[in-house]
Amino acid sequence: MSPYRRLALLVVVSLCCALPARADVPAPSLDPAVAAAIARIDAANLRATDTRLVAFGTRSTFSEKSGPNRGIFAARDYVFDRFGQIARSSGGRLSVALDSYTQVADPAKRIPRDVVISSVVATLKGDDPAAPTYVMSSHLDSRNTDNNDGIHDAPGADDNGSAVSAVLEAARVLAPLQMHGTVIFACFDSEEQGLFGSAHLAQGLKAAHVDVEGDLNNDIIGASVGDDGVKRDDMVRIYSEAIPTAANVRLINAIGSENDSPSNELARYAKETGDAYATGLTGMLIWRADRFLRGGDHESFNAQGFAALRFTEPRETFAHQHQDVRVENGVQYGDLLQYLDFDYLAKVTRYNAAVLASLALAPATPKVSVDTKALTNDTTLFWDPVPRAVRYEVVRRLTTEPTWSAVQDAGNVTRITLPLSKDIWQFAVRAVDAQGHRSQAGFPTPVR
Ligand SMILES: [Zn+2]
């Protein structure tokens, strides 16, 4: 055989060994209790809540002294009372609190005067104190053209009355459900000035050593028609940061894990789960923290090292955001209720609630290592046992694939060697409980 033919044969044999037949990743199994809970999400409730929020006139951070019927503190008290009503169906597990502090004036931070920043935080206790905590978040504040204007109307129907309505509705349907992990439903103040409310809560959770394994942040989720007039009520965008700020970029570059941040794994989990629950939506994964020129409260969680993502409607109309309500050259500006699609908002709320409940019912994310002590063409993974797990799954994909493309049942072990090359594949491990709830995929750290 000529050297060239031998080389060609070697390449073919290598490819065959490297690319075994795929065991495609099946959709997650559905939990009937979760399906029943999300079926109770009601577009009319979402419309009623958002209509009430808009009726407070403005929810600017600087409208806090506007009285009982106007401004952010009136809206805050309304949201607080709504959570109090929801708590009655929770068997004493849901509690609601204000997370407040005085932000001193700092013009460099868009805070021209001292202001009390006060977020509403409802906590639904899980039945396992050792299980992780998950957050569904939104921001309650609104703004018009002038970000410091606490006087004039800033209806904020879509940005972000839509998401506050979604958080309340998700809390309503999930409060009666027994889950293992604790779930926090948060409505933040002062997102528009610079994520102040969410930063305060995320820092507090970090300082208290709370194991937050995901924040599902929702911001501008209520319109299905964008500025091109096309209706897209069958998809939702899912943003997640590629490379955590504190990450070891040299390591990420070496192992090609730039699409495997904890936030990316959370986003994959969200898409798999949300799509599977037949919510009528497909999630679009976007590996970046947020849109250009924009940010959101999930970034406060990222800043503390927590996995977090942002849901946002398919295509925005910028004339309806951060604008004084007015008509100019025949164009209506302002963030008004008339542009919202509450059937679409109901879908996004179901998508969130399905993901949130699935996370809170599942085992914690495995902490996984990959053995890189020696040069080998196979892969050894090992991990700490995860409470409530009865078996584990190894998922894998090629480095160029966006989502897990193959799965292998590992049984109830905490170490496995696979005849597949770690130099070719990305691997991760999921924990599965007796009812079939799957954890997020734990991406391995190389260990020498
Ligand atoms: Zn917003």
SS elements, strand count? 17
Range of strand content: 15-25%
Mean pLDDT: 94
Instruction: Report the total helices.
Output: 11
CATH architecture of the largest domain: 3-Layer(aba) Sandwich
What name does CATH use for the topology of the largest domain? Aminopeptidase
Distance between the termini: 40 Å
Largest sheet features? 8 strands, mixed
* Global structural class: alpha/beta
| H-E string | HHHHEEEHEHHEEHHEHEEEHEEEEEEE
Radius of gyration: 23 Å
What is the percent of helical residues? 25-40%
CATH top level of the largest domain? Alpha Beta
Overall, the morphology is globular
Spell out which ligands are present: zinc ion
> Strands across the major sheet, in which order?
1-2-4-3-5-8-6-7
Question: Regions with pLDDT < 50 over 5+ consecutive residues?
Answer: 7-22
- Looking at CATH, the homologous superfamily of the largest domain is Zn peptidases
